[in-house]
């Protein structure tokens, strides 16, 4: 890429936003902050630009990108139909962490954005820098999370730099992302059912408040949430041990149904091992925090004895349940009573284990209500389905 934004432009700087918008219009790539995580943007109509996004991320080509818009009006050009329930969800939660999968208007977006599907995922982010950039660019902006495929999503501009420096046109630095986990991806069925393809910043409870409790179908996401790697689809790569970028192993055609009768993932991205730290990660769950702590401490001690560098991801309330020195690197997600704080800090926590060189990491499970559903979804995917039952 010829034009280079100087690294980590300060986002409040309107000149930096104008420069970034010009870069997008010229077919370049720019990472920018959103309220969920940082995205890597490109003009969604420009196939060459979109291909640079896939290349920079090392992303499998069968995984479609979310298109970001500055307002509902932009949908007229992009989609052919909006179900009334979809419209109601947008009215309630845009701008915000909600992506709607809608029927794409043919011939507008690069086919690389939709990965050949006849639908497109669209969202309006709730972040002043993202909105200013989208307005200035004046085009639909395809933007996956700005991480190398398989790595935890970036919640700071420095995470983007760590993963993608040299591969992208630049980064607008807007500080720490507020939500910390990606948007909720939904698809409204013709009968008004809201299929949750990926849990995220908008909770099932919030969807139900608009669409009705009976209309919210969590099964597409839940089918994958606790799926073991072998049941989640033939293309699911092995454990991310050894620093492999797991999702690079994805192959075209991987969206087919698994041979074992489990449903084909409807958000294609959900089938890949994602968000993974470099070390081995397991999620520990059980009937009581005491049981979980005992099971985790025992395994961490054994791991330490065989020479592993250990990590422990816990909730603040449980710190005292672990003997001193249980793990070399202990990271707290904050209080169990404040899941928004856990969401905000989860990806940075996973990256901290990498910085510490952790090779064996255990994470406490949390209840799957509210934002906890998205937190557990990401933890389970980071763990590649490895669960330790403490009971
Ligand atoms: O919060 C977010 O959504 C962030 C920020 C940057 O906006 N973006 C993000 O994009 O997480 P990405 O590409 O990492 O994840 C997009 C997810 C994938 O699971 C993908 O399979 C799904 O959305 N998706 C996109 N288009 C789809 C479509 N037409 N049908 C079904 N799933 C789709
Ligand atoms: Mg992503």
From TrEMBL:
Annotated PROSITE patterns: YRDC
This protein's name: Threonylcarbamoyl-AMP synthase
GO CC terms of this entry: cytoplasm
Species name: Paenibacillus donghaensis
Binding locations of L-threonine: 36, 68, 123, 143, 183
Family listed: Belongs to the SUA5 family.
Catalyzed chemical reaction(s): L-threonine + hydrogencarbonate + ATP = L-threonylcarbamoyladenylate + diphosphate + H2O
Database matches in PANTHER family: SUA5, THREONYLCARBAMOYL-AMP SYNTHASE
Residues in YrdC-like domain copies: 14-202
